[in-house]
Amino acid sequence: MERRSALKTMAGAVGGLISLPAWATGWTPETVSLSRQFFSPQQEAVLAALTETIIPKTDTPGARELNVYQFIQKVVADCYDKASQTKFQKGLDTADELAKKSFGKSFSEGEPAQQAAVLTQMSQSGDPDLKAFYSMVKGLTIKGYLNSEYVMTNLTNFQFMPGHYYGCVPVPAKTGTKSD
Amino acid sequence: MSYFNIDAQAQNTYDAIVIGSGISGGWSAKELTGKGLRTLVLERGRDVRHITDYPTTMTQPWEFEHRGQLTHEMKEANPIISRCYAFYEGTHQFFVKDAEHPYVQEKPFDWIRGYQVGGKSLMWARQTQRWSDFDFDGPARDGFAVDWPIRYADLAPWYSYVERFAGITGNKDGLPNLPDGEFLPPHEWNCVEKHFQKEVAKRYKDRHVIMGRAAHITQPQPIHFQQGRAQCQHRTICERGCPFGGYFSSNASTIPWAAKTGKLTLRPNSVVHSIIYDEQKGKATGVRVVDTETKQMKEYYARIIFLNAAALNSNLVLLNSTSRRFPNGLGNDSGTLGKYVAFHNYRAGISAEFDGNLDSTTDGRRPNSPYIPRFRNLYKQETDFLRGYAAGFTAGRATKTNQEGFGADLKNNLLNPTLGGWHVGSHMMGETIPKESSYVALDSNLKDPFGIPQLKINIGYDDNDDKMVKDYQEQMTEMFTAAGFTNIRLRDDHRNPGLDIHEMGGVRMGKDPKTSMLNKWNQLHAVKNVFVTDGASMTSTSTQNPSLTYMAMSARSADYAVKEMKKGLL
Question: What is the ipTM for the molecules in this complex?
Answer without folding.
Answer: 0.90
